[in-house]
Amino acid sequence: MRKALLVLAGVAIFAALWEGYKVVGNADGTVLFGVRVLPRADDLSMPHLWTVVQRLGRPELTGGRPVWIVVLQACLFTLGITAVGFAIGALVGLLLAVAMQHFGLVERGLLPYVILSQTVPLVALAPLVAGWSVLWPAWMTVSLIAAYLAFFPVAVGMLRGLQSPASSGVELMRSYAAGWWRTLVKLRFPAALPYLFPALRLAGAAAVVGAVVGEISTGTRGGIGRLIIEYSREATSDPAKVYTAMLGAALLGLLVAGAVSLLELPLMRHRRHVEVVTL
Amino acid sequence: MTSSAVVVDKVTKVFNQGRADEVTALSEVALTVGEGEFVSLIGPSGCGKSTLLRLIADLIPPTTGTVTVAGQDAGTARKKQAYGIAFQQAGLFEWRTVLRNVELPLELRGLSRGERKTRAEEMLALVGLADFAGHYPAQLSGGMQQRVAIARALAVQPPLLLMDEPFGALDEMTRERLQSELLAICAKTGTSTVFVTHSISEAVFLSDRVVVMSARPGRITAAIEVDLPARDDTARQSEKYFEYVTSVRQALRGVPAAAPS
């Protein structure tokens, strides 16, 4: 209940800032020494929020389906791509982390490449991946791009988590004659969960970005990324339209983050009640 | 031959051998712990008492010499879970309830769910925490966590208990209560114990024998048999108790030990 109120308050504050800026801001933006430091506040650049909401209800093209249905469908399409990319990315990240933890040598050899992988511009990589797409459907290419962004936080966060148990815990497992696998399952993996979930949230956001950018750079149709590009072409005549697509993309990100939180609930039960008994 | 719980024979342990930071932690150490005996290792920090305990537990290998636990080499004994171990930090798994923490060694031994639960509940009752089985470690005080750790060490009903300053982080009152509880448990189960501490009074109160060690290199310098008629609060005040404390203190300072008559 309190959470719902906080969310509503957050939305209200955003709306107030947006509309407030439109009231006080310069319509041509504020320019300081030739640099525009504040954006234009005119209706073309920043349409009123209610215009955006109204636009959602009106047809996409004359006589077509209403925008909100189109946006929702595009979101669902991209959600599917994101989910597949997220799953692949998380799995690859997990396996990499386990390998890096197990073989210290692999960590030293692999970690620089893992970091390097994220500095390669995605836009440069996308056409390359698209070139292989004879092997799988076009949407899979976008999923792979999403996975490429998603695996990184999981690999790094999980590695940190797997290394987190104190030496006393590791020695204890050794005293129980537990091998590598059982130490991983009983000790390292549960100990890594507090590190895993923030990493998964980052990975979720990265997967959404990867899916949206991937759709744009590979020219995949049907998703929210494509919709943003299409609608932004009409920005001069119909400025509210592109914002409806952006709204969709934002909701998509929230949805993915929410899904990760749901995953966390049953696994982090021990964190919830921390009242200390003294006896 | 196998009437000794632990036999440490001419064990030397060198860390970082052949490197600039080479340290001889233990030099030619020999120690025998009889069945059902309670032996304390005491000495200044850096004397290798924890190293000796870890050698017995086969957490680290000796450089030279042999360690025998329950008639077999230390590695085999470890694989058979022939001992239970507790450290200074309780080291409970925070994502497991108290009961599930105690069940952990039983789980790794492959006991059935029902057996595990029964045994773990028994152990928790033994350390007086039966009512806290469903709690998480973060909900317990330090003393209670340590008791859970002891219950966990005892869960497989090992013939040997290894403890590395288990009460080191606790306040004096809790410490004394847990000492009495530990003695009662050891008496009940007939467990042999190797107990590392740097508290003289704790060593004397608990032990049948106090083994005094000195540092650089770690060696055993004296072994003092402690023969107290009873181990209770009156024993803590007795003349004899203080005589033992004095002789251990003298041994620690390098004065030749003169055992009380």
Task: Explain how this protein is built.
The complex is a heterodimer of chains A (279) and B (261). Chain A has 279 residues and is mostly helical. Chain A has ten helices and two strands, in the order H-E-E-H-H-H-H-H-H-H-H-H. In chain A, strands 1-2 form a two-stranded antiparallel sheet. The longest helix of chain B is centred in the last third of the chain and has 18 residues. In chain B, the strands form two sheets. In chain B, strands 6-7-8-3-9-10 form a six-stranded mixed β-sheet, sandwiched between helices. A four-stranded antiparallel β-sheet of chain B has the order 2-1-4-5. The chains are: A mainly alpha (279), B alpha/beta (261). Chains A and B meet through helix 7 and helix 8 of A and helix 3 of B.
Computed CA radius of gyration of chain A, to the nearest angstrom: 23 Å
CATH class of the largest domain in chain B: Alpha Beta
* Largest beta-sheet characterization of chain B: 6 strands, mixed
The radius of gyration of chain B is 18 Å
Share of helical residues of chain A: over 70%
Question: Largest chain interface and its two residue counts?
Answer: A-B, 24 and 31 residues
Counted by DSSP, the helix tally of chain B is 8
Shape of chain B: globular
- CATH fold naming of the largest domain in chain A: MetI-like fold
| Number of domain units of chain B | 2
**What is the number of helices of chain A?**
10
Which structural class fits the helix and strand makeup of chain A?
Answer: mainly alpha
Low-confidence stretches of chain B: none
List the helices and strands of chain B in order. EEEHEEHEHHHEHEHEEH
Average pLDDT number of chain B: 84
SS strand fraction of chain A = under 5%
Q: Give the strand line-up of the largest sheet of chain B.
A: 6-7-8-3-9-10
Q: CATH architecture of the largest domain in chain A, please?
A: Orthogonal Bundle
What is the share of helical residues of chain B?
Answer: 25-40%
| Topology, number of strands of chain B | 10
